[in-house]
Each structure stands twice: as C-alpha cells, then as structure tokens.
Amino acid sequence: EYELPPAYVGSICLPIYLFLIGWTDDFESVHWIVPTAAVGLFSVDRYLILNPIFCSLARAYPRYAASVLTGNGFMCLLFGAGSPLFIAGVFHNLEICWASTLLGCLRGLFVSFPFVLHWRGGQVCLRSKFARHDI
User: Fold this and answer.
1) pLDDT per residue rounded down to tens, the chain (135 residues)
2) Residue 65 domain boundaries
3) Domain count, the chain
C-alpha cells in the first residue's frame, strides 16, 4: 500500500475543509477568499483521497481492474445521483454552517479508512479469490 500516504493527508484534511467552508461562508466579517480557498483545497483533497484508492484497487485486482474501477465509479455516481434528493433539504433546514458541520462530522467518521486499508488491506486481498496474493 505504498500509494496510500496521500490519502492519509487527504482523509484528515477533508473534514477540516468542510468546517472551514461552512463556518466562513455566512459571515460578512470573513473575507470572501477564505471560503473560496477552502473549496479549492477541498477539490484538491478529493484527488488526494480518490487517486490512491483507485491505484490500490487496480493493483490488488489487476486482471479485473476495469470491472473493479467501473464498480467503484458506479457506486460514486450512484451516491452523487442520490445526494441531491436530500442535500438541498439539509442545507435549507440547517443552514450552511450547521449542514457543513454535519457533513464534516460524518466525514470525520471515515478518517481512518485509508489507515485501515493500509493495515488490513493485505488480509482482505488474501481472502479474495480474485485478488493478487503476492502483494
């Protein structure tokens, strides 16, 4: 799992950026560049998380890499297609500050995912009959 260190940084920083976006957006005393920079860092951070995970999946399942990456992309798109059904209501009812706090807290629950993937990823691959066993 040598490709995972960028995901460590990304998984820790992502909730921070969500809090930064939410708690600097509604206040006139905060300069407009602060939430704009937080959105930019959030976008870069998503790359830091997703790219190592894609690489890990492709390396663990080289024969089935196209199917694994397609399945991963499909699940991401399914979540992306379903989230507009509830996210507008969340931001409308909770307002930007508290909705971003809620999303940051939910994302905070998944901070450990890249670390667990590094720690237990080899054992998961050993249990799969489709994965490489020489990793």
Assistant:
1) 678 889 999 999 999 999 998 899 777 888 989 989 999 998 898 889 889 988 888 888 889 999 999 999 999 999 999 999 999 999 999 988 999 999 999 999 988 888 888 887 777 777 777 777 665
2) 5-127
3) 1
In a domain, 109, yes or no: yes
**Burial of 108: CB neighbours in 10 Å, binned 0-12, 13-18, 19+:** middle
Does 96 reside within a domain? yes
Report how far apart the first and last C-alpha atoms of the chain are (Å, whole number).
9
SS (H, E, C) the chain: CCCCHHHHHHHHHHHHHHHHHHHHHCCCCCCCHHHHHHHHHHHHHHHHHHHHHHHHHHHHCCCCHHHHHHHHHHHHHHHHHHCHHHHHHHHHHHHHHHHHHHHHHHHHCCCCHHHHHHHHHHHHHHHCCCCCCCC
